[in-house]
Amino acid sequence: MSQYDEGHTVAGWTGTGIATVGSAVLGAGTCMVSAALIVGGLGILAASVLVTWALHLSGWGKPSGPRPRGQWPMGVRDLTVRDGHADCWGCRLAGRGRRSADVVAVVGEPAVVGEPAVAGEPAAAEAGSLGR
User: Fold this and answer.
1) pLDDT in tens, 32-67
2) What angle do CA 47, 96, 67 make, to 5 degrees?
3) What is the spatial distance between Cα 74 and Cα 119, in angstroms, rounded to a whole number?
4) Of 36, 30, 74, 69, which is closest to residue 55 (Cα–Cα)?
5) What is the pLDDT of residues 80-132, one digit of tens each?
6) Distance from C-alpha of 7 to C-alpha of 2, rounded to nearest angstrom
7) Burial, 62: exposed, middle or buried (Cβ in 10 Å; 0-12, 13-18, 19+)?
8) Is the whole-model pTM more than 0.85?
9) Backbone phi, then psi, for 84, in 5-degree steps?
10) N or C: which end of the chain has fewer CB within 10 A?
């Protein structure tokens, strides 16, 4: 088994199964010229995306990249999903994953571009981490 084993997750297989059914219904609707089947197939395809996303966010999908051997089997739940996976669009859409830098609002005089916001800590203020 590959160290990456991308797609070998409960979320991946469930989404693929639902999308296969949706594609079959959509194809049947196209061949039979049935608007009801076409709309039904499109609805099933949309449901496959939402079900896969929900399963991924609940820990049944895994981040990409190498994982320890204990994480290789398909039925292992990912417990780090609450923090979000790095570079994962699904996690970012849910408000997880890569966070932007904290914005610090200083009450009083406006900061001038190029000058540190806190006079006593020029290096920390320039780096954007006010001594945290």
Assistant:
1) 999 999 999 999 999 999 999 999 888 888 877 777
2) 90
3) 54
4) 74
5) 788 887 778 788 888 886 655 444 444 555 555 555 555 444 444 445 445 44
6) 11
7) buried
8) no
9) 90, 150
10) C
